[in-house]
Amino acid sequence: MNWKVCLGILTCNVVFMSASYTMLIPFLPMYLTRELGCTPADVNMWSGLVFSSCFAITAIMTPIWGSLADKKGKRLMAMRASFLLAISYCLGGLVQTPLQLTFMRVFQGFACGLWPMELAIMTIYAPPKKLGLCLGVMQGGLTAGGVIGPLFGGILAEVFGMRMSFFLAAAALFANFLVLTFCIKEPPNSLAVPSDTGTGIQEPSLWRNPLIRNLLIYSVFTSMVILLIQPILTTYITELSGGMDNLVLVSGFIFSLGGFASAITAPLWGQFGQHHGFHKSLTYALIAAAICSFMQALPNTLYYFAACQFAVGLFFSGINPSINAILAENTDAHTKGRVFGLLFSAQQIGAMIGPLLGGAIATLLGIKYVFIAAGIILTSISIVVQKRKQGE
């Protein structure tokens, strides 16, 4: 299969997947109160439970699906994830209580694995000299969906109610399933050969590889930073807005600015890493994102904060493509399902910790300190990345 055709199809799939997620997840607290009868006193508890339940199950299941992908087929696992995610979103539009929504998110965690499988497929088809570009374009597609989703979700919530958003998300994921079924071929020679051939010697654990282990740890903390900030954005925007009308729509727009910036710059970061080294692009992106995170704690006006949100997106877009590319360069086709499964699991662990830590910091110290904490974490990661690279 031609790598350019594969890149185009998978990028479109990623846009649908990301838009489906982001037009719903940022607004789940509002869904709980407006549609499911959750009281203001209980909404924070249920929001935390609804968010965390999916991440916890995903962290457990993704490595299992990744291992199966190496044995049974990466395309097959991508098809499975698309179909089950479509069912989960459909169920989300039908639930009537906060507990039912929590169970829906648990099922969604079980259905996980679409993004890592599509990454694994693309890294096998991509020519080595185009790896950075391909991963950058796919990351751009992921963040482009992050731009479309909140805007579209905000409009739907205002006009039709949030249930319609769930049904449209289900339709988008089912379209992904059809495309994967009829348009994508399983990458050649990508299935793992059984590691135990009667000698009793098993293939070494990927976790024992220092490079892979370090990158997984970086991913935990990077994902933690994103989810440290994301859940409190709407609350912070509300504080800065001074009672502005159409707050859901305004929040969706500002939430999208970072994604819009990332969609523009992700392919550029991929090309930069291809020419100058992905460790260098990772370090630079981390430092610049840390500076912008510190800047987010400064503004007292909504417009200045919106500008900072855009600036953060310019540099956050270089982190994940760099990590993905380093992993792709240091693994073969037979293990990419497992390694990207582990990567996604690491990200989910960070995503599970982030909202809890962010909520604690915001409650004890104030919302501005959440952004300061994010800057400190990103700066620390950049220092570790640089020192370990110099030590190799």
Write the layout of secondary structure elements.
Blueprint: H1 3-22, H2 28-34, H3 43-72, H4 74-92, H5 98-110, H6 114-125, H7 131-159, H8 163-183, H9 210-241, H10 247-276, H11 278-296, H12 302-316, H13 319-329, H14 336-364, H15 368-391
Helix pairs in contact: 1-6, 1-7, 1-8, 2-3, 3-4, 3-5, 3-14, 4-5, 4-6, 4-8, 6-14, 7-10, 7-13, 9-10, 9-13, 9-14, 9-15, 10-11, 10-12, 11-12, 11-13, 11-15, 14-15
Give a brief outline of the structure.
The protein is built from 15 helices and no strands.
How does this model look, in words?
The chain is an all-alpha fold. It has one domain: MFS general substrate transporter like domains (Growth Hormone, Chain: A, Up-down Bundle), CATH 1.20.1250. It is built from 15 helices and no strands. The two termini are 37 Å apart.
Helix content: over 70%
**Unreliable segments (pLDDT under 50, ≥5 consecutive)?**
196-201
- CATH-derived topology: Growth Hormone, Chain: A
Query: What's the story with the biggest beta sheet?
Result: none
Task: Write a concise keyword list for the protein shown above.
single chain, 392 residues, mainly alpha, Growth Hormone, Chain: A, 15 helices
